[in-house]
Amino acid sequence: MNLSFTWAMVVLALLLLQATPAMGQDVDLAEHVRLTEEMRRLARRNAWNGVEAAYRGLLELAARNGDAPTFEEHYLGAQAARALGDVNATYSRLNAAVKCGSPSEVRSAIDWLANIDANYGTVSLLSQLDSAPQIIPRKMPFAPDQRAAIQKASQLVAATGRYDGLLPAGVYEFGSESLLVEPGAASAPLALREAGQVRKRGLSLAYSGIRMSGGMAYTGAGPGSTMDAEPGSFSGLGPRIAVGLEVGLSPGLGLLAQVGYQGVFGQRPSNDPAVVEAYELQGWSLDLQQDGTVLPFDDSATQMHSGYLWSGLALRAGALGLAAGPLYVATFSGSVSTLRDGCGQDGAAGQQCVVYYTGGPRAGGVAFEATYDLVDLAGLRAGLSFQAGVQTDTSRWYNWGQVGFAMLPATSRRD
Amino acid sequence: MSLFAFLFTLDLGVVQAGQVYIAEEGHVYNPQWAPGGTWIAFELNRYGDAVDLYLARVNGGVASVPVKVVIPGATSSFSSRGSVVTGPVWHPEGHVIFEGSNAGGTQRLYFMSPGGQSAAELLPVSQIQGDLTWPALSPDGRSLAFVSDTTGNGDIYIWEQSDNQVRGTITSPWAEASPEFSPDASLLAFSRKNSGSEDLFLWRNGGDAETLRSGNGDQSRPVWVGDQVVYFTNERGEGHWDIAVTTVGGGDRRILARDIRLPMRANPAITPDQRSVAYTLSDPELADRLMVTTLASGTTVEIPTGLVACGEPDLVQLGDGRVFAAFTALPTASSDWRQLHVLDVTGKLP
Fold first, then answer.
1. How far apart are CA A89 and CA A74, in angstroms?
2. What mean pLDDT do residues A301-330 have?
């Protein structure tokens, strides 16, 4: 009995082992049928989340056993994706349906694909803003699938910061940008960035970038406090150019820092006095040679070559920009020819002479800038600029004004 | 499956209408022309089984094979038995809006672009629940009025395309039905069943509903013609349906036609020039013709068809100026099913 029982168990085990693959196939087939029936049942009630889940179940089943969904199943999957706003999945599922359907079946899928081609365009949207903007159509479409697709794309941008795929044709607002989607065409990629994605101690910059300015400046220097020891009033025109950085604490408020060059080229005094004296000064303060030697004659006109450092706050309001802040100017090469009275040996009035000074004063003050954006150049806003400022080297005041151009970092930009 | 052709022959002064042959059995009802007459929608009622909606493209008097509209969940590959698809309304841009339900399901509104993608639910349950019926578009197509029974009473809601929002508009303890926008979309005419009879009301955005026309019997299915409203009424008693017209803002109602054949679902059929109403008569002896009566003078012309039990006319003007009438009729007295017929009535209207 024991032997018979053992043999019976062995035979049964062999039968079970042999039956396992076939039983697995049966289980998969039953699951396929169940999922298909579920899709049909839920579709009749427009319960598309359920249809979507069942379709994904079919795809998982197909990946496991190679039993691909039928035309009807792909078509139902496309309808589910459409109702849920996933037009990209709709498109791919319709294509899958076309590949496996009979000629009589595929016509509806082909018509549908053509309908999508005729009404949708491809976009690539990226938002790196802290708060992702909505995709707002200028005119809400009537078709429910198109409305759902817009809503879904907005949800994806909000969740992931980007959307790549189909969007109904039309004009949209995406953050600060306008987007035109043409049917059957791909729009240029559009990215909204908070310029300068650098995060320092949790500080998020609204924008950042290079700023430049340049133009022609008029500089006037007032009389010195000690006429004998330094030049009198003088003035001149010259170029003024600077480059630096600007970072936005918010889209409307930023910090700037610039280094630049300022030149002043004045005229030599027009009369021709008999005596020409020349002194070398440092910082426009008297510093005669210790032996009192008169330096060689030099009748050069006024020239100043200075470097400066400017920093401050920048305000942005649309195309208008304002900035103001402290200014430090260091003259590395200066020569000034001024007219001086009382050049006789007794110092009596009436005898004029040209006094030639050289020196390199250091001055501090404030500067102001107003800009107006005109064009967008590779992420920079370019436009007109006006700057003005005053500074003092503690002995005299210098005032200046400049007109020219400026290039500022955009607060958002299209890539 | 089916063959569709327009045949116009002149026979002893009677214009023979072209028949739309449908292979499937059932009565054809409620033909509705698309703007410009490029498409026509109609229902095929198999009684107790299902009601299907068909669309046929019409081009220069020649039509393509009608195609059955299949709502989601009722694809042809797994049968549409039990589904009910009715009440087509055309959007100015050529989309068709209609009611649809699968067996045991709720009645919802669907959208379809003929020749394009398959039908899709127009407003998901997340936007408006319940059975949705009586879709009516504003003339510019940007507002949709419809009835939802989500509160159990049948109230009118309006969906606005501009913001994709549904707003409850007209609620009452009674059942509202058949909303229709005025030509400038500032007014909505509708009917309400209260105290057993059906009356007409007007609603202006932001205001309360006002009675437009009440009285004996039912006043039903209003349609606007300028500042006038044309409607069906059986104020003379059950079985006697008339067409009446009343002016908004006061004025008597006038009976335009008596003892007409009440369409299954359609509103009074207004001619493309907005001057007349088309109808057929309930008297079997007189039901072989289309009747057209002007609103202003009451002048009536008869257009013989050579058919039997004509009903449910709808008229459209084509781009070339021709005017076509679509209507249903029995080909002969012994025919089993009402068929769809199309008749060129250019120059025959009053």
1. 10
2. 90
As its CATH architecture, domain A207-409 has Beta Barrel (2.40)
Q: Can you tell me the distance from the alpha carbon of A24 to that of A347, in angstroms, rounded to the nearest whole number?
A: 120
Q: Which residues in B lie closer than 8 A to residue A142 (C-beta atoms)?
A: 91, 93, 95, 111, 141-142, 161
Q: Reduce the DSSP state of residue B239 to 3 states and report it.
A: coil
Contact A44 B108 (CB under 8 A): no
Q: Which of A82, A83, A142 sits opposite B161 (nearest CB)?
A: A142
Cα separation, A126 vs A164, whole angstroms: 8
Nearest to A108 by CA among B205, B70, B30: B70
Residues of B in contact with A45 (CB under 8 A): 73, 102, 105-106
DSSP B258: S
CA distance B269 to A390: 83
State the greatest distance between any 2 C-alpha atoms of chain B, in Å, as a whole number.
59
Nearest to A148 by CA among B164, B131, B212, B247: B164
Bridge partners of residue A383, in order along the sequence: A373, A406
Q: Which long-range contacts (CB under 8 A, 24 or more apart) does A310-313 make?
A: A310/A242, A310/A244, A310/A256, A310/A257, A310/A258, A310/A259, A310/A260, A310/A367, A311/A255, A311/A256, A311/A257, A311/A258, A312/A255, A312/A256, A312/A367, A313/A253, A313/A254, A313/A255, A313/A256
How confident is the model over A364-413, as pLDDT tens digits?
999 999 999 877 766 678 889 999 999 998 888 899 999 999 988 876 53
B303-345 pLDDT, tens per residue?
Answer: 999 999 999 999 999 989 999 999 999 988 898 899 999 999 9
The alpha carbon torsion through A97, A101, A107, A108 (nearest 10 deg) reads -50
CB contact under 8 A, A142 and B78: no
Which of A40, A105, A108 is closest, CB to CB, to B118?
A108
> Closest chain B residue to A70 measured between Cα atoms?
B77
Q: The CATH number of the domain where B150 resides is what?
A: 2.120.10.30
Q: What's the token pair of residue A25?
A: 């196939």
> Which CATH number is A2-118 given?
1.25.40
Residues in A lying within 8 Å of B, measured between beta carbons: 40, 42-46, 71-72, 75-76, 79, 82-83, 105, 108, 111-112, 114-116, 118, 139-145, 147-148
Q: Cβ A72–B78 below 8 Å, yes or no? A: yes
Q: Half-sphere exposure of B163 toward its Cβ, with a 13 Å CA cutoff? A: 4
* Extents of the domains making up chain A: 2-118, 121-192, 207-409
Question: B208 in a domain, yes or no?
Answer: yes
Determine the Cα–Cα distance for residues A13 and A29; give it in Å rounded to an integer: 24
Which of A46, A112, A142 is opposite residue B118, by nearest beta carbon?
Answer: A112
Nearest by CB to B120, from A42, A141, A144: name it.
A144
pLDDT at B228: 95
> Residue B139's domain spans which residues?
129-259
Chain A nearest-CA distance from B112, in A, is 8
Q: Which residue has the tokens 């005669």?
A: A288
DSSP H or E stretch at residue A31: helix A2-44
β-strand partners of A199: A204
Chain A residues with CB inside 8 Å of B104's CB?
44
Q: Of the candidates A43, A116, A148, which has its C-beta nearest B73's C-beta?
A: A43
Cα B31 from Cα B43, distance rounded (Å):
7
Q: How far is A253 from chain B (nearest CA, A)?
A: 34
Phi first, then psi, for residue A35 (nearest 5°) are -65, -40
A301 token code pair: 């006109």
Q: Is the pLDDT of residue B14 over 50?
A: no
Side-chain half-sphere exposure of B42, counting CA atoms within 13 A = 29
ipTM above 0.95, yes or no: no
Into how many domains does chain B fold?
A: 1
